[in-house]
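Sequence in, structure out. Go.
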Amino acid sequence: MNELILLENVNAIELFTGNGVDEFLEKFSLEVKSIVPDVSTNKGRKEIASIAHRVSTSKTFLEEKGKEIVSEWKKRAKEVDANRKKIRDSLDDLKAEIRKPLTDWEDAEKARLHKYVSLITFMNETGALVQTQFMKMELQEMESALKNIENEPVNEDWEIHIADGFRAKDEAVRKIRECITAREKHDSERIELARLREESLREEKRRRDEQLRIEGEERARQALEEQHQAQIRMKEQAEERARQAEERAKQQKEASERRQAEAIIQAENAAKEAERQAKLRVENAVKAEREKVEAEQRRVLEETRKREADKKHRDHINNTIVASLQKNGVDIETAKVVVFIIEEGRIPYLQIVY
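Output:
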């Protein structure tokens, strides 16, 4: 056993680096295997057990040596890592300090150019918003947006963004102007349509009232004419009867003087009665015509009242719808336009039930 390698003489650094382990294992294995005890003797068997134990203790000894080396290396590695971090952090701080004026300038330049990018985005989004919402927006709101964009200068300060700036500004101005023109045309047409409807209703009422007046005057004139003709006819008839009575009186004067007087009286009474009856008929005709005219006037008044009531009813429903739309986020002018185009029947399958 004394012939085996003395582990205390082994250099641990040389053993665990390079090819030291392979060389040691090869030499140690050859030395151990070169000893061949006799297994048939008690001494030989003890020697085999002793060699195996020596191999085991060698393994433990060498493993501990390796751990000691690794522990030392780890400690040194930590020290190196700490110094590396110190160098890295210090030089990073120094780099940042040296570069700070340039970094500050670059950040300011980025912020300045980003402002122009934001303005381009703002102009694009404003133009698109007005183009899709111009029927809901107030005219003043669109004009204010147009003024803000027109007053935004695009110049050499925009640098690489100048072309996009001019393009975005021109496109936004064009869209907003087109929308303002379309909105003004729509509002003008709506106002003109309402005015024409109102004028049509007034003209229709005026023509109807004028026709009723003319018809009433004509019926009254005809009644008066008929009354006058009836009076003339009755007078002529009375005169004819008087003449005939006078003739008969002359022929029968001696014999029928009394009857002639009675006939004259009867004729006069008959004429008075006929005149009274004719006058009564004329009065009845005038009264009937007056009642007819009054009935027509009452009918016209009733129709007018119903129209006004219907208009008030419709206005109430329309105002209620407008108020509901406002509660749901629709501005009042847009709500009025929606109610108007539904009332006009411009939207298929949609109507207001009054």
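Check: Residues 230 and 278 are 6 Å apart (CA to CA). The chain has a mean pLDDT of 81.
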